[in-house]
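Lab notebook, design round three. We kept the backbone fixed and only want residue identities now. Task for the bench partner: fill in a sequence for the structure below.
Input structure tokens:
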């Protein structure tokens, strides 16, 4: 079986060998074991479920909350000649039905990606029973834990899936999880026994720096002057992405901006320009990065403090995936602490505000009380905020809390391109005589440039088609609508609005209930995570050691490369050298008192440095020297 795994890896991905831990995880899954894999960003998590799924008959069901990542992975698999489909918010019932039919009827189908919210549909679960599922893969599995930083109630439905397919093994993967979350994931997913594979979160090639500066923009320019290669600058809001990218352009840096409010075409254009090196720096919100594989990112700069160390670790980890030296740089100002603490108020509006928002939302979407269950709606956040005179950030957080309360599902990253499906066969299409020459040319162009249009909905770009035909986008749009009316094609125009789906029918506002786990406890957890970020930015301790300790990596040691470790200690050596030698001295004289002259040989360190550290420890009354000159630890 191990040979088969290597054959699949070579045939479809072109690699001769697996990365550390990948093969162990694959063997565990192939043996039918429920498995939790903790691997850092860029560690090759997708390979661990894609390879074993390819090794046996059936379809791998992949649950992921990120629509952009879902689309990216499906397209990536198809480019490798592997049949894969996705089902997500914003698709029509016809699209969903067709994709499920393909999974049932086409034995070559290997992957079905879906969002966790789909698992709330009894119809969807019923259809899954007719699909030969060989593996259940749970991406971003920390979302199932209420102790995780991004809890999504829909993930709790996965336990019901396990009841439908009790013999199908589960592989849960995540890049970040605290010990509490690790245990909770396995409990919530009904693991038959605990089974965790951990890859060290330490990235030897990644240098973590925190810089306390007054002018972040100017310091950012200095970084880019001193470092070569491409980079990412992360900021909190969409307006700042454009503001900072323009600032960089004005100062000679090739830069562009990216956020969730862009159209699919705009996103793709900006991503591709950055991936190919045409754009050096992308300034983005946290919407950027998932599923974007660019190994040679040399720096990631955070202008604003992130909400959690989990988020920071993931975003910073997008630097240096080629295992060459790269930098993760956090720019800090004293005022950032107050701003971060203020986010608690914005992130957790008063319950009365949430209830009023819910009531206004039902009116805005025209959903009567007692109705709406299972229905999806386009949601124009800007128009809603204007009509109800509400801060957009507060509205966004009300939606998140209503989602965590299990009342609605909110998908912000929906950005669906136009799609078409030919509803007639090729022969009937060639016999279609009622079309104009322009219509015939459009059909021929689609057939020449787009594959699979007779068996599934495929994305198209009206602008690109217009360029081929030397006409306007509006002309292409009108022709496609006409062909749809004639039942030649099924045409779904582009949509980029966020989607809201009612998990339960709309309730009277007095029936809404937010228990401690849904509000108060989550607020306390959020405050703890914010405090951890502030401590990371302000505490004078090795940055890597802080991060690894947060994720409970036992025996975390100083990295020797971060700003703390390389800081000059008063003994005229680096903090790393000082702390390393200090630890060895203290360990040695705790075991047995020693003469100063013998210490360098005992701990295998240079005499001059050992003498300086010993003098510092004596001066600071941390060790003592007896009358016979023996060095000892001071007794407390």
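Proposed sequence:
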């Amino acid at each position: 079986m191990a040979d088969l795994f290597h054959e699949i890896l070579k045939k479809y991905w072109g690699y001769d060998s697996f990365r550390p831990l990948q093969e162990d995880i694959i063997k565990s899954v192939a043996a039918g074991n429920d498995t939790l894999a903790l691997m850092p960003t860029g560690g090759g998590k997708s390979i661990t479920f894609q390879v074993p799924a390819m090794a046996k008959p059936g379809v791998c069901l992949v649950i992921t909350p990120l629509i952009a990542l879902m689309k990216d992975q499906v397209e990536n698999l198809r480019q490798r000649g592997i049949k894969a489909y996705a089902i997500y918010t914003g698709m029509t019932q016809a699209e969903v039905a067709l994709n499920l039919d393909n999974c049932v009827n086409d034995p070559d189908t290997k992957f079905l990606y879906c969002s966790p919210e789909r698992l709330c549909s009894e119809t969807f679960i019923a259809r899954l029973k007719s699909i030969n599922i060989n593996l259940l893969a749970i991406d971003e599995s920390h979302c199932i834990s209420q102790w995780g930083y991004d809890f999504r109630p829909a993930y709790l439905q996965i336990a019901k899936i396990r009841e439908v397919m009790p013999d199908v093994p589960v592989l849960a993967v995540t890049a970040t999880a605290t010990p509490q979350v690790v245990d909770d994931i396995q409990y919530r997913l009904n693991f038959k026994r605990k089974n965790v594979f951990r890859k060290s979160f330490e990235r030897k090639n990644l240098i973590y720096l925190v810089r306390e500066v007054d002018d972040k923009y100017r310091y950012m320019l200095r970084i880019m002057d001193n470092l070569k290669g491409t980079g990412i600058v992360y900021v909190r809001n969409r307006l700042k992405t454009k503001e900072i990218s323009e600032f960089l352009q004005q100062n000679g840096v090739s830069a562009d901006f990216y956020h969730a409010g862009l159209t699919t075409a705009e996103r793709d254009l900006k991503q591709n320009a950055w991936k190919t090196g045409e754009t050096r720096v992308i300034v983005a919100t946290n919407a950027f990065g998932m599923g974007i594989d660019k190994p040679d990112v040399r720096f990631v700069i955070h202008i604003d403090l992130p909400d959690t160390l989990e988020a920071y670790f993931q975003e910073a980890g997008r630097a240096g995936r080629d295992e060459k030296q790269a930098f993760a740089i956090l720019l800090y100002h004293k005022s950032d602490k107050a701003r971060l603490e203020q986010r608690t108020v914005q992130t957790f509006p008063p319950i009365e505000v949430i209830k009023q928002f819910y009531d206004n939302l039902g009116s805005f979407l025209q959903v009567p009380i007692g109705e709406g269950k299972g229905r999806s709606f386009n949601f124009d956040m800007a128009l809603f905020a204007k009509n109800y005179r509400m801060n957009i950030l507060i509205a966004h957080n009300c939606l998140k809390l209503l989602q965590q309360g299990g009342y609605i599902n909110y998908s912000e990253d929906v950005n669906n391109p136009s799609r078409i499906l030919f509803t007639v066969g090729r022969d009937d299409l060639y016999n279609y005589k009622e079309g104009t020459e322009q219509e015939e040319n459009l059909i021929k162009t689609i057939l020449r440039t787009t594959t699979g249009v007779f068996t599934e909905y495929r994305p198209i770009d009206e602008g690109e088609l217009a360029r081929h035909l030397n006409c306007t986008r509006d002309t292409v749009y009108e022709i496609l609508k006409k062909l749809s009316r004639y039942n030649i094609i099924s045409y779904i125009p582009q949509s980029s609005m966020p989607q809201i789906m009612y998990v339960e029918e709309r309730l009277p506002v007095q029936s809404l209930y937010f228990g401690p786990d849904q509000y108060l406890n989550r607020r306390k957890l959020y405050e703890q995570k914010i405090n951890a970020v502030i401590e990371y930015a302000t505490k004078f301790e090795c940055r890597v050691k802080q991060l690894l300790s947060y994720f409970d990596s036992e025996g975390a040691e100083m990295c020797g490369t971060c700003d703390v470790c390389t800081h000059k200690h008063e003994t005229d050596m680096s903090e790393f050298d000082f702390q390393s030698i200090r630890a060895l001295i203290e360990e040695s004289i705790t075991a047995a008192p020693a003469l100063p002259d013998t210490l360098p040989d005992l701990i295998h360190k240079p005499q001059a440095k050992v003498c300086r550290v010993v003098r510092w420890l004596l001066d600071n009354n941390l060790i003592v020297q007896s009358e016979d000159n023996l060095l000892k630890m001071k007794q407390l």
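Keep this in mind before ordering anything: The chain has five domains: 2-198, 206-340, 349-414+497-518, 418-492, 575-633.
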